[in-house]
Amino acid sequence: EPIKLVEYSVTTIKNGIDGIVTTYVVICRENSNYESTSTLSQENVHPTFSGTAAGTDVVVSSVEAYIAALNKLLGSKE
Length: 78
Description:
The protein has 1 helix and 3 strands, in the order E-E-E-H. The protein has one helix at residues 52-73; strands spanning 3-15, 18-29, 36-45. Strand 2 (18-29) and strand 3 form a beta hairpin. The mean pLDDT is 77.
């Protein structure tokens, strides 16, 4: 059964030299609005988001959050 993305957000808070990026993901099975799950991930990144490394960190954080939610929805214990 296909999985759909219900909600997705990325926020950044500057914290001294680094920034804290929080990725929030909610997913559910396509035919069910009731069986859904969410996950939150936080990562420290360099605040200069024009830099390649910072952009990559945000993408990695987002992908990891989505995979974590997918595993949770599919019943993985990890």
